[in-house]
Amino acid sequence: MQVQELVGIVPWTFIAQICNLFLQVYLIKRFLFKPINNILAKRKEMADAQIQDAVKAREEAEAMKSQYEQDMIQAKNKANEIVVSAQKTASAQSEELLREASRQAAAMKNKAEADIEQEKRKAVNEIKDEIGGMAMEIAGKVIEREISEEDHAKLIDDFIANVGETS
Predict the structure, then answer these.
(1) Residue 2, in any domain of the structure
(2) Where in the sequence is the domain holding 162, given as residue range(s)?
(3) Which of 16, 101, 124, 147 has its CA 20 to 30 A from that of 85?
(4) pLDDT band at 140 (very low <50, low <70, confident <90, very high)
């Protein structure tokens, strides 16, 4: 009967083994699974918080990027406006300078023409005075003596020589 005892079920041993199994499951669940589950839950919360932070940071970065792009577009537009304004101003100033230079050139030309005309009148008056003086001299010489053909030619030559010397 010894062989039969090894194969058979002893009720007290069976109950003790079942109680031992429940006790081990209870202890493992209480001291092993609960702390591990708590640690896993905390890790999951930390991972979720980091994911939320990353999503928030990405949204902020995208908002900053769009703001930066808008600022760049505005800066380019403003720079273009400044360049166009500077070109218009430069064009207006160059036109004004050209008008002023043209006006000054015309004024200088008119003044030069007036000076030339005045000098011409002065020269003509001086020549008239000289001719008048020479005519008086010639008339004085003619009155002093009677003019022959030779004297007449000589007076003309003297007159031409005098005019050549004075001019």
Answers:
(1) no
(2) 11-166
(3) 101
(4) low
